Amino acid sequence: MWTTKTFLTKTKRGNILKVVREHYLRDDLLCGSNACNVCPHKDDEYVLDSIPESICALFDFPHYLLLDTNVVLHQIDVLEEDALKNVIILQTVLEEVKHQNTAIFQRLLEIIHDKKRKFYSFVNEHHKDTYVERSPGEKQNDRNDRAIRKAVTWYTSHLSINNVSGQFPQIILLTDDENNRKIAQEEGIICCSVKDYVENVNGFVGLVDKLSKNVIPESCSKDALYPAHLTPTQIHTGIRNGKLYQGTFHASRDNFLEGTVSVNGFEKPILLQGHIGINRAVDGDTVAIEVFPKEEWRRPSDIVLEDKADDPGDLLEEESVLLSSAKPADNSKDEITPTGKVVGIIRRKWRQYCGILLPSKFPGATRHLFTPAEKRIPRVRIETRQSDILSSQRILVALDSWPRNSRYPLGHFVRALGQIGDKDAENEVILLEHDVPHARFSEAVLACLPPNDWTIPEEEIKKRVDLRSVCICSVDPPGCTDIDDALHARPIEGVTTDGLKKYEVGVHIADVTYFVRPNTALDKEAASRSTTVYLVDRRIDMVPDLLSSNLCSLRGGEERLAFSCVWEIDENANVLFTKFHKSVIKSAAAMTYEEAQNAIDDESRKDVIVQSLRTLNMLAKKLKQKRLDNGALLLASPEIRFQVDSETHDPVEVQAKKIMDTNSMVEEFMLLANVSVAEKLAEEFPQCALLRRHPAPPPANFTTFLKATTQQGFEIDVSTNKSFSKSLDEAVLPDRPFFNTLLRIMATRCMQQAVYFSSGTLSHPEYYHYGLACPIYTHFTSPIRRYADVIVHRLLAACIGEDVTHASLLDTKQADAICDNLNYRHRQAQYAGRASVALNTHILFKNRVEIESAVVLSVKRNALQVLIPKYGLEGPLYLPSEKFTYNEEEHYQICGDVTLKTFDELTVRLSLDSTNLQHRKLVFELVKPHVPGFSYEPEQMEVETITPDQEVKETPIKKRKETKDSKAKKKSKKQ
Does the keyword Repressor apply (predicted)? Predict the structure, then answer.
């Protein structure tokens, strides 16, 4: 049977187009029930039980549940529990959910595919007895509700006539739409709200906690604390006529009453202050804002402000402290920022948040406050009857709504992650909070892998350049198992026209694309993950371990497939010729940086590996100098390495990473390979090459940095990267060898993020990589751990005829989407790595206190940001306003004869503050210079560590001697 579907669509030019499509209807679609004896099911198509057991006290008869769209969208956490079974999901609902929220759609599909859950997907839109036409003037939502009710009526009739035993299951429509329930009841349909059904389910403790709180309409809020949000129509009209602006809200980490929104037309982000100004926006939301007149603009507050109230109830505290501090002083007009307020929410970007429960002070209470681990997220009000258990655990909570009459948003408990302080639970928090995909690889992904005993087929070797006889080796950090790259260098007979020696140098990169083919489950998973994430004690792989640590890893002594970039280079490091080809290699050695450095420095060694390394090292130094001469920046970051206990995996020591010549040697040839490949791709694919750019930082980024360097007597020229690099090289203090490194660390903070992009989206001058001072750049050298490199390998293979050009590679729209995801995942992986370092630092300092040298990175109104060079650790050293005076113009603090400014050397005491379980933090206390009544005085205290398992104790010296004497007496008594 055929019918037609008609709908209207708008063209790019604004014309209305009528589209008519034929719609095929059938009468042989299966109902999925074991109670039916008519539908010709196969064994695996009998999904629903013939006489399902009722678990709800409201209904004492066998029944199936049929859900409407909003139940799926808002109550997916309830549906994921094993409690609800024998559920019918209509095609109407599936399509609506897919259109509105792809993440929930994927979660629903996983439930449907789990045979134990007994969820059946019924194709009601193609059944002749359940399909409904949309009436003239009828809203799509009302039509869909009508289609759902018709499917319920059909199922009830179908099962009552065609059942096996005479007893048949009833159909219960679950919907939270009061109007839909009213109409359904008038039509004789049994229906129920999700809340009523779940609250009467027996035998599933905690299921009620997972109920999403219904959204309260703006107009229905009583005792409103916040202004009402504008309607979508009002927002659209306001943006179109220029009265409103759209942007993404970014909450402040240091001040819960402040945030910003970047919008077109303003050089600076728009400042939002106070509860009313933020108006229930949550970090990441797309909002509509109104910008105030210029006379109402303010500057950002420099006071650190946290929401410390236990639960102030539905009240908004006075904001006079924040607003008075934000008023511009006469001498700071350049710091005044456009200011505005949120007037509407365009799109929420809420997710599930990790944190801890703050139990109510009232015994037996079910309403509690949840404190997220992410400081930029407000506290959340949830209901749970498990507070006694959950108060000691890290938990996951989802946001549901934020009514006008509630100080905090409303949410619901999702699941517990583990005990607070448990390392596995804390790592899970890091991964979830930074949106790092870390589930086990699915069966579909694993099915794409070759067998464990896979070896290179002979026919594949014949297609490639055989380099197994060439002395190739890899140089990596200690413990590295995902070895992406290997190198070789050997002399070439003859000389250049200038009489210079010639060398063949090769960079050989793991050929991951041989195993990861386009559009497979493995490829889609790698694209989603985009990068391998490195935590201190674990690695979250982009591709399964069989590839990352075995078949793709260029391990010593094993034959591997590679993609090679080979140059002919003269002894002055001038590239004479470049070629690319797929190859087969057999690495002669997999070395660490230290092993390679020792081999180079050992004059007694003359073997082929060492000769290759020395050639590479010699050429690398010349390549580096050429880059620096072109204006490349040598920046620095405080990187550290943890020594981890082999059994507990807890850190036992931390130290700054050692940088050797071999680090630079590998880096130079990786950079050269990336540049060579980028040039080739841009030549062959000018519209869709995947490249990487580094925008030049805006001059405003350097303001504080330049003030600080001027105080030290250096005039740094930041007009170009070349002048900047030269200035950094010259800024040296002979009596402070670490000063130049510190300068480069601070310069790094002024930079913008490097990003991936598709070549067709920008003009050639915008390809420029500021930090490397090169006109074009990409990532080719790490395909095991970066999906960008996988795409680049595919493009390069197509360039040289080693593989076919896939249509998806040439799709600029898809390339843009890939770049967006790459940039997001890369950024989140960096943040997750830093959070892991912070977690392990806290574990390390749990039982220790140390006094160390430090340097000042920046000066704030109420704190110094300090760095401990020995450990690469940094944090705030808070200064009381009653003792210190802050100079806003020059950014320094004064207390009597003591002046503290950027780059100053200090001595600090370092310890861990665990009083706040949610946010443990390192505490920095000033030791030197000495400020009476403020500085910690070590001469009065000594640190005594009893055992590694006991807490660090600080004992006055006199008392400690008595303790030793008493121990000696006890010992003599025993003897």
Answer: no
